[in-house]
Design brief:
By secondary structure, the chain is an alpha+beta fold. The protein has 3 domains: about 80 residues, Arc Repressor Mutant, subunit A (Orthogonal Bundle), CATH 1.10.10; about 120 residues, Arc Repressor Mutant, subunit A (Orthogonal Bundle), CATH 1.10.10; about 90 residues, no CATH class. It contains 15 helices and 12 strands. This is Winged helix DNA-binding domain-containing protein. Pfam families: AlkZ-like (PF06224). GO terms for molecular function: DNA binding.
Length: about 375
Amino acid sequence: MAPTASSRDVTRLRLARHGLGPVSGTGRGTLTGPLEVVERLLAVQAQDFTAARWAVGVRAPGSSADDVRRAIDDASIVRSWPMRGTLHLVPAADLGWMLGLSAPRVLAGMRTRRGQLGLDDAIGAQATAVALSALTGGRQLSRAGFLAALEAAGISTAGQRGYHLIAHLALTGTVCWGRQVGSQQHLVLLDEWVRAPRRLEREEALGEFVLRYFSGHGPATLQDFAWWSQLTVADARVGLGVALGRLVELQVDGITHYWAAAADTGEAGGPPTQRTPVLPLPGFDEYLLGYRNRGFAVDDADFPRVVPGKNGIFLPLVLVNGRVAGTWRRAGRPGSPVYAVTAFHELTGRQRAGFDRAVQEYSRFFRPDGASAAEPAEPP
């Protein structure tokens, strides 16, 4: 029979698996760099590129936004649409098998909108030909440059057509976002950019998907995984069957949760412990977004304050003892930022001071190598 666990146990274990738990004896976090973070989580939501970089940085103390850029520039990490039709950062070697599982459903879901935009299979094939012609041989184009190439070939990119054409090419494995030049990421051919992709058979890939999710996000339920990946429940169950021998089961309030055992989980039965008493997490952070059931991280009554107006925009989070205690935002003038907190319940003086210290790490993270001020840049 699977052992039982409390909600505090779930929170403590999730903090550890997310790389947000206590530092090691060396004074470093459990995850030591951008690639290790992305490999642990498998996918970091990245339609907001500044938020995605901080999601990596907050889990790898001492790293910088430039470290994330270098990991992208050397094709260790890639930004594309691996699942849910949403941009994510993923380990470059894993993108191909993820697309093989998720892209067919995403493309099917886009079919109606593509029809409304007048994008049929013939135009898709023509856009693929343009991409191959423009990018083969290690060439790269900015978003604007690639849209201009499509227009020159007689393919209108007006309205949302340009976005859908690029997304279609990414989902079908033709292109991905590559090197950052200035504030712009450039499109490259996926097969040229990712030189050593992992090749997995379908059932093996499903097992890998399940295992990696529970390794980075566990303890969690199979329903959490199905929501996060947007795979069918049937495929999720196949993947669970493949991965089950490498997972640990926990019963939490009579519901089965899974996680991958590791050495960085903290003392059994101990309280939820963060690396620092207050952590400023970005918007769209996997700690909250990565689950169907968000009750382990935030009170139901407070959740609408994280996603005001239910508009799909997840605000940056103030995390205290593994629970969302409020939201925060960056304000002030360029070069002289101010960080404002909207607390759900009154913070203690020590907690506010802890937040003030923690956001200094955020500023340091975005400071360009050798520069004295931080100003996050946002590729498309």
